[in-house]
C-alpha cells in the first residue's frame, strides 16, 4: 500500500538519543504547523456549519439504542454479564500465558482483518491481550445493536454505522503505544517516521482547508491527459453544465449507432478512462464504436440553483443534439453510470410520455431507480440529516467535494481511512501512486438544488419508483419505457446494491437484460476482458422473481461483462458506416480531450 519516502534508516540496537531529541523537536514544529492549518479556517470563517448537527445525531441515535435496552433490565443485565464473563476469561487466559502456559484465544480476528497481521499481535501476551480486549468490546457492541428489541430499521442502521465508525477509530492498531509494529518502527528510526507523518498531516489538513483530506495516493504522479484520461479525442461542445468529448476512431468502420456515456456528476468521468489498460472508453472505441462522453462541470456558487431537470436538458439532451449535428444520427445508445443512470431513467420516462424518440437502447451501470432497498448511504437519509446538509450548502450554494469523498470513505473505514492514517501519518510512508485512489481523492462539488432533490426525492421519498415524480407537469412512468435496457449490478456493491438494481429493473416496460457482475461499484464496472477477473451472471428468467431465485438459475460466465454488453448492442443495431473523425465533424473541436472542466480541483 505504501512506500518509505526517505532513505532507509540505519539498523540500531539502541535508540540514538541525539537523533531522537532532534526528531522530537521537529515533531513539535510540524505539529504546530498542523494545528495552524486546522485553526486558520476557523479564525477566518468561524466554525463550520453542520458539525454540531452531526454530533447531535450520533448522541440521539445511541441514546435511542440505550433506551431500548434499559426498557428490559433483565436483558441488559445478561448482556453486561456476558461482557464481564468474556473479560474474566481473557484475564485468566492472559495470566496463563504470562506464566508460560499455553492458552487458546477467547476471540480471534477475522482472517481477512489486515490490522492484526504482525506476529506480535499473537506472540506477545501483552499485545495479544490488548487485541482480544478490543475484539471482545467491539463484538459485544455490535451484538448490542443487533439485539435491541423494538428499534426501527433506520435507527438500527444508523446505530450499526456509528458503532462501526467508533470501533474502527478505537482499534489499538491506530495508536503508537498499542501497535507493536509502530513501536518497532519508531524505535528503529528514532522517531523520524513520526516527523515525516506529521509533516504530511499538516499538508493534508491544509489541502482540506482545515479538515483532514486523507492522502490515499501520490497526487504528484498523475496528470490528466498524460497518464490518466489519455484516450485521444476532442471536446466538440461546451455549455455551462458540461463538455462533450468525441473520441477518435480506432477502426476503419464503426457501428452506425453512436454511443453516449453519461457519467455521475458526483465523481469525475475519467474513472471510465482511468488508464489505457483499464479504460472502458478506449475498449469501446477499439470495438468499432463512435463514443461520446459527458464531462460535467465542477459546480460553484453560480450554479447553486441547477436542478436534476437542468442536468437532463443541458446535459443529456444537449449532448444528443450535438451528436446529431456531428454525425447526422438523431438516435444514440446511451449509457448512464450511477446517478447518471438515475437521471437517464427519468429522461427516458419523460421522452416516452412525450413521444420523443432519441434513444436506441439504454445501459444502466450500477444505477438505482427504486431506492427502497438502497445501499449503505441510506444511513444518512432522514429529515434531520438532510436538513443539516441543506443548511451546510446554503452559504456557498454547493456541497464540498471532500464531504462526499469522506462519506464514501466512511462506508469502508477499515479499508479507506485507518490503513492510510497509520501508514502515512504514523509510519511516515507516502502512499503508492494508485490511479483508482487518485480518482477517489479528486471529488467534485454538488450543486445545492440538485443534491437536495436527489436526497429528498430519490433516497428519502423514492418518488420515481412510486410514480410521484414529474417534469413540466408530466408524470414519469418507467413502465412506459419500452426500448431495450441493459442493467448492470455488481454483487458486492454497497452503494447501489444488486437487490436495489434488480428491483428497479422490474419497473421498465420493455425488454431488460439484467446482468450481475462480480466485485463492487467501481471494480465491477471497470473490469477489462484481458484481466480475466471476476465473473458475471445472466438469466432468461423473469425479473419478477426474487433476486435469490433469479441468481439460483443464472448462468455464471468467467471474466468481464464488457463483451456481453457489446454483443447485446451490436445485435440491436448492427449496421456499420465509415469511422467518424471528430476533427472532420460539423462542430469545430474546442480543445483536446480530456477537456477543461475535468481539470477543476475542488
UniProtKB/TrEMBL annotation:
Coiled coil: none annotated. Residues 112-284 form the Poly-beta-hydroxybutyrate polymerase N-terminal domain. This is Polyhydroxyalkanoate synthase. It comes from Chelatococcus asaccharovorans. InterPro entries: AB_hydrolase_1, AB_hydrolase_fold, PHA/PHB_synthase, PHA_synth_I, PhaC_N. One of its GO terms (biological process) is poly-hydroxybutyrate biosynthetic process. One of its GO terms (molecular function) is acyltransferase activity. GO terms for cellular component: cytoplasm. It is found in: Cytoplasm. Its main location: cytoplasm. The keyword Flavoprotein does not apply. Keywords: Acyltransferase, Cytoplasm, Transferase. NCBIfam families: PHA_synth_I. Residues 288-527 form the AB hydrolase-1 domain.
Amino acid at each position: 500500500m505504501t512506500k518509505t519516502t526517505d532513505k532507509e534508516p540505519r539498523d540500531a540496537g539502541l535508540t540514538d538519543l541525539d537523533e531522537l531529541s532532534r526528531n522530537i523537536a521537529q515533531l513539535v514544529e510540524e505539529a504546530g504547523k498542523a494545528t495552524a492549518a486546522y485553526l486558520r479556517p476557523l479564525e477566518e470563517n468561524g466554525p463550520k456549519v453542520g458539525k454540531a448537527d452531526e454530533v447531535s445525531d450520533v448522541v440521539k441515535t445511541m441514546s435511542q439504542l440505550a433506551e431500548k435496552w434499559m426498557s428490559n433490565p433483565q436483558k441488559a443485565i445478561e448482556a453486561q454479564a456476558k461482557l464481564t464473563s468474556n473479560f474474566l476469561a481473557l484475564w485468566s487466559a492472559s495470566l496463563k500465558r504470562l506464566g508460560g502456559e499455553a492458552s487458546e484465544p477467547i476471540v480471534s480476528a477475522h482472517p481477512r482483518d489486515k490490522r492484526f497481521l504482525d506476529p506480535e499481535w499473537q506472540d506477545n501476551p501483552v499485545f495479544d491481550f490488548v487485541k482480544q480486549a478490543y475484539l471482545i468490546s467491539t463484538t459485544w457492541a455490535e451484538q448490542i445493536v443487533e439485539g435491541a428489541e423494538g428499534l426501527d430499521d433506520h435507527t438500527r442502521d444508523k446505530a450499526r454505522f456509528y458503532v462501526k465508525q467508533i470501533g474502527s477509530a478505537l482499534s489499538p492498531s491506530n495508536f503508537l503505544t498499542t501497535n507493536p509494529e509502530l513501536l518497532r518502527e519508531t524505535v528503529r528510526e528514532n522517531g523520524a517516521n513520526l516527523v515525516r507523518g506529521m509533516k504530511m498531516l499538516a499538508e493534508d489538513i491544509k489541502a482540506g482547508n482545515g479538515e483532514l483530506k486523507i492522502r490515499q495516493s501520490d497526487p504528484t504522479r498523475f496528470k490528466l491527459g498524460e497518464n490518466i484520461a489519455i484516450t485521444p479525442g476532442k471536446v466538440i461542445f461546451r455549455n455551462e453544465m458540461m463538455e462533450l468529448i468525441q473520441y477518435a476512431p480506432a477502426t476503419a468502420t464503426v457501428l452506425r449507432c453512436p454511443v453516449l456515456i453519461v457519467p455521475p456528476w458526483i465523481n469525475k468521468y475519467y474513472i471510465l478512462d482511468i488508464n489505457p489498460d483499464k479504460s472502458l472508453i478506449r475498449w469501446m472505441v477499439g470495438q468499432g464504436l463512435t463514443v461520446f462522453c459527458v464531462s460535467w462541470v465542477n459546480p460553484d456558487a453560480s450554479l447553486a440553483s441547477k436542478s436534476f431537470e437542468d442536468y437532463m436538458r443541458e446535459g443529456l439532451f444537449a449532448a444528443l443534439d450535438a451528436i446529431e449535428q456531428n454525425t447526422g444520427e438523431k438516435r444514440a445508445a446511451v449509457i448512464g453510470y450511477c446517478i447518471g443512470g438515475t437521471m437517464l431513467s427519468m429522461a427516458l420516462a419523460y421522452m416516452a410520455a412525450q413521444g420523443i424518440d432519441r434513444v436506441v437502447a439504454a445501459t444502466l451501470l450500477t444505477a438505482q431507480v427504486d431506492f427502497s432497498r438502497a445501499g449503505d448511504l441510506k444511513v444518512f437519509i432522514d429529515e434531520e440529516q438532510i436538513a443539516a446538509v441543506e443548511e451546510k450548502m446554503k452559504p456557498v450554494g454547493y456541497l464540498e467535494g471532500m464531504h462526499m469523498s469522506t462519506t464514501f470513505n466512511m462506508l469502508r473505514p477499515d479499508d479507506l481511512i485507518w490503513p492510510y492514517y497509520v501508514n502515512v501519518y504514523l509510519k511516515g510512508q507516502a502512499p503508492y501512486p494508485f490511479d483508482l485512489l487518485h480518482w477517489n481523492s479528486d471529488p467534485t462539488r454538488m450543486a445545492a438544488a440538485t443534491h437536495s432533490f436527489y436526497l429528498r426525492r430519490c433516497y428519502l421519498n423514492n418518488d420515481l419508483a412510486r410514480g410521484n415524480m414529474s417534469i413540466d407537469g408530466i408524470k414519469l412512468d418507467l413502465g412506459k419505457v419500452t426500448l431495450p435496457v441493459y442493467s448492470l449490478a455488481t454483487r458486492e456493491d454497497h452503494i447501489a446494491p444488486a437487490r436495489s438494481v434488480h428491483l428497479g429493473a422490474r419497473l421498465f416496460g420493455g425488454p431488460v437484460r439484467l446482468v450481475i457482475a462480480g466485485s463492487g461499484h467501481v471494480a465491477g464496472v471497470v473490469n477489462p476482458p484481458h484481466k480475466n477477473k471476476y465473473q458475471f451472471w445472466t438469466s432468461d428468467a423473469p425479473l419478477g422473481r426474487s433476486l435469490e431465485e433469479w441468481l439460483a438459475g443464472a448462468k455464471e460466465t468467467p471474466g468481464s461483462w464488457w463483451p456481453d454488453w457489446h454483443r447485446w448492442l451490436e445485435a440491436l443495431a448492427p449496421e456499420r458506416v465509415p469511422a467518424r473523425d471528430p476533427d472532420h465533424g460539423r462542430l469545430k473541436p474546442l480543445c483536446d480531450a480530456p477537456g477543461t472542466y475535468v481539470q477543476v480541483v475542488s
